[in-house]
Structure formats: C-alpha cells, structure tokens
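S.,

Sequence below, as promised.
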Amino acid sequence: MEINNQVEQRREDKIQKAVKRGDWEEVCRLLNQPYLNSLRRDRKNRLCSLNSTSVGGSGELIDTVSDKETPLNLLLKKERMTIIAKTLQELSDVDRAIFLKRSIYKTSYVALAKKFGISDKTVKRHYERVKVTLKENLEKN
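The prediction came back faster than expected:
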C-alpha cells in the first residue's frame, strides 16, 4: 500500500514539474500511465475487452459474435450434439478412441495402428465406419 502511495506521489510530482515547464505531452503521458499499465497487465494475463479493436483490425470484438445464434439454431445445435454424444457412447471403446483421436487430435492412421496393434487400413476402416454411423444417426433424427 505504501509503495503505491510513493509511486503515485512521484508521478504527481512529475506532473506538477511538467505543468510548470508547459510540457503538456508529458502531462498527458503521466496521466494515462495507470491506464496503460492496466492494459499491459491485461495483455500479460491474456485478457481482452469486448471493445478491443485488435480483432481483424476494425470494429469491436462484440461485433464478431454471430447473428445466426438464434434460439432455434442453438436448440438444433444442442440436439445434434446430443445425437453425436449418444452415438459415440454406443460405439466400442476402440472405435470411439480411433474416431476421437483421428478427428480431434489429427492422429495419423499409422500412429493409431501402432497404438491398437492393427493395420493402418483397419484403422481407416474403423474411422470411416464411425463417420457413416454418425451421418446416418444425424440424418435419421
């Protein structure tokens, strides 16, 4: 607490000296210093404001939120996710592991074949079969 007061006091002294010299740029810089420090802390902690203009160089971050997220679209998305989760639960452990590792982590067929002790063509067949099953269940429901 005392350090902050000392820092603030030194900054205030510098502001007063800059005012006497008529150095208004220095006054502005010193007055903005706490705000700029908070921005640096936010960047360090990877925080951003909804008013950030760093996304695409123009506009606000909040403008990047899709207008297509209507309640109906959210409900449909939730239903699709439920169907996918149910289908994945019904798969064998090997099929589920192959599908998830291949689709999410982009694990190669060769690496999966080594992990499960089967050929890479068999791994590919498992993966393709799960994709067909998921597609059929999504179209059916």
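The longest helix spans residues 24-44.

Coffee later?
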